[in-house]
Amino acid sequence: MAAIGYRRSIVGDHSDDETGTGFGGHRGTKASVGARARAHGFVGRGAIAILAAAAVVACGAGAKSAATKSGTSATARAAAAVPTPTAAPPTGDQAPSLLIGSWYQVASSTTVLTLTATRYILRDTAEQGNGDIVVNGQEIDFFSGTLCSLALPQGVGRYRWTLQGVHLHLAPLNTDPCGRIGLLTNQTFTKRLS
Question: What tens digit of pLDDT does each residue of 12-32 get?
């Protein structure tokens, strides 16, 4: 084997060629090329295993440290990201064609209630709000209003509607928890025909 000129020393003193020190570092032992390769392979794999273990520990410690610093774990943050289901809106149908249009409050010419098949717009001199409606026979439910901070199932105003000619009257079926109560409760509206 010495005839092929295999040398490991970069100094040139022959201290680590195959006839020099062997795997154990003892002079005078003859290590074969195969044993030397096995030894270096073992050391290489061992070093890789140690580096990999150190990386896992460091990453785990960093994640634990980040969770401790922020006060929440990754699992808790992931659970918080899942949207919470909201309550279903009141059931009902679209508004009948008789209700669709702009209605002007008799008591105040500045208050206008506009109804579409599924939405309402309520305008007054001070503000304007809108939201959704459903109709169940003579009951109309107002909900999801822009001027109402209550989420479903709260925030629903239920009214009985009656029509006499071009006059719409709204009588409360519950205490409307939103600001529209003063503009709708026991009010009569007149439909303006274009």
Answer: 444 444 444 333 444 444 444
